[in-house]
Amino acid sequence: MARRRCVYEGREKDLFEGPGPGLLVQHFKDAAWVRRPRKVGVIDGKGVINNRISAYLMTRLTEIRVPTNFVRCLNMREQLIHEVEVLPVEVVVRNIAAGEFAEKFELTEGTVLPRSIIEFYLRSEDITDPLVSEEHMTAFGWASTHDIDDMVHLSMRVNDFMTGLFTGVGIRLVDFSLTFGRLYHEDDMRLVVADEISPDRCRLWDARTNEPMDKDRFARDLDNVVEGYREVATRLGILSELNNLSEAPGR
Ligand code: CDP
To answer: What is the CATH number of domain 6-83+226-244?
Structure first.
């Protein structure tokens, strides 16, 4: 069978032409990359787990009417998505101080914030993603005030929903980042949650021990990296489905 055309090669995911107009296939790789400290590597099995966790979370969000660009899983490493125009800013929602944020504001890591804090970062390839304000976004045309209102509103809904979901399975949702895209349908356009929601994009701590179960294990040179991801899937009750699926043909 002819291979699909790759339309975007990312560090951790690739995008291929989909089976119809406006559709793409998102392929999750095992490659791992963190900006701070700069580190690249491979986490065996990560792509399979992230594909499943992200599909699960996006589906649950759709059920509560948070729009996403996820359509359905195709196999262990691939999912069908709607093509969107990705906004050049990312949203980070923080519930608990961690990482550089904790250092910057001289907070002990683990301090519960007085309320959830929403930040915007410019997506960039070469420079460390800078923190940006509403002024930067509207002045440079990265997002309108209406887009910003939508992103804040949707991010808070995602945060409330995921905080509850993870609390129920003994996990603290410390912080996470979301990518938004413009989904066009005939004359209509709406902002939707795009890309992925997975332990690559969230800080998830065990509620009892505060042990990280996410990409920080890789960033901080801790052991049992993929086991952390696997434990998140187990607690969400989706690991048995992973074991029943067969591996997609390798790329
Ligand atoms: O929190 P700190 O300032 O140390 O770091 P960050 O890189 O801004 O991370 C905040 C949250 O955004 C974490 O949950 C990361 O997993 C997530 N993030 C992401 O998903 N993609 C990036 N390129 C950077 C951060």
So the answer is: 3.30.200.20
